[in-house]
């Protein structure tokens, strides 16, 4: 049974066993564009990827299913070499601990996403990045574009163009990298992992 056939079975919820780890050649391959109209499998896969992220962010479900928390997932991480990513970035509580008005600052399944423009300014997360396909801590600043314009298609084949900055920009760049065979630590300076270039934004 192919990876996608197993994942889209109605009874199956994506879990950590479905996620391939570094060393698997699919993570270094350049993924194929999807064609429209999408197959039912491709639509269901996108929905299941988003559901995995929701499950991983729910403390009870995550513990029950043994999930690591995630804000993004790309099809190549499921051993499916297609340009499909899901992103789910929660909004933080306010300073008094009240839930945000909007639960998510970014909630989307993107087909054939591409960065079509980006800022000159670089940015990196203060705490570095992690990856569901990497079972180790890799320290250092993962240098990315501070702002990006991304074009993608939704499941209905409609084209979207979004401008992203800050954490959302970093998350989407990380996932698009997966569709290009790039791992987050490829962006870390091996000689000086915490080098800060002039003008680089460090995001807490």
From TrEMBL:
InterPro entries: Peptide_deformylase (IPR023635), Peptide_deformylase_sf (IPR036821). PANTHER family: PEPTIDE DEFORMYLASE, PEPTIDE DEFORMYLASE 2. Pfam families: Pep_deformylase. It catalyses: N-terminal N-formyl-L-methionyl-[peptide] + H2O = N-terminal L-methionyl-[peptide] + formate. One of its GO terms (molecular function) is metal ion binding. It comes from Candidatus Streptococcus faecavium. Binds 1 Fe(2+) ion. Fe cation binds at residues 131, 174, 178. Removes the formyl group from the N-terminal Met of newly synthesized proteins. Requires at least a dipeptide for an efficient rate of reaction. N-terminal L-methionine is a prerequisite for activity but the enzyme has broad specificity at other positions. The gene is def. Its cofactor is Fe(2+). Its EC number is 3.5.1.88. Coiled coil: none annotated. GO terms for biological process: translation. It is an enzyme of class 3 (hydrolase). Belongs to the polypeptide deformylase family. This is Peptide deformylase. Keywords: Hydrolase, Iron, Metal-binding, Protein biosynthesis. The active site is at residue 175.
